[in-house]
Fold:
Amino acid sequence: MTENWIAPSILSADFARLGEEVDNVLTAGADVVHFDVMDNHFVPNLTIGPLVCDALRKHGVTAPIDVHLMIEPVDRIIPDFAKAGASIITFHPEASVHIDRTLQLIKDNGCKCGLVFNPGTPLHHLDYVMDKLDMILLMSVNPGFGGQSFLPSALDKLRQVRQKIDESGFDIRLEIDGGVKVDNIREIKEAGADTFVAGSAIFGKSDYKEIIDNMRAEIAKAG
Structure:
């Protein structure tokens, strides 16, 4: 059975103390560092690039770094993130002219790869690439900013993707990102997710361990 991962999004961390923030959240029990890359073009915000990923690795972060590219085009920057220490790189099908080629590019650079689906993006992009994927990320908010509310329609989409993964027989993680909190993580787990991105729900609290422990307790209750 796939282990459940808690993946704090550093988009909500204190950037003046980023290395310390990442250390603290990993010590508190997080599994993965989620890295939101926005270009002020594909999404209406501008965030961080490979230099920050490289800086975290040089700081001593050894946990997996899960890089979500909200940029267009994506191919140019993939080798830079791989070299900077990314473990997993996901991108949006709308941002690639050749999805299969982009997935292969990520693999060729030594990283795991995945596709990201916005709330309004149909799932047919999965039809011919399930054998290439390590992760499928569903956005439960429209991307661009942290702190948004979870869109309930994501639950049905999670169930559909969970069924696709189970029927495929491939070992693919199912990640959810957007508005994930202690009070809804159980139903998100029950809908099929195994990787939970949370930004302000974790970094907005004073005790990271308490919030992560509470999330795990809710996940454990899932039927």
Summary: Residues 94 and 121 are 9 Å apart (CA to CA). The chain has a mean pLDDT of 96.
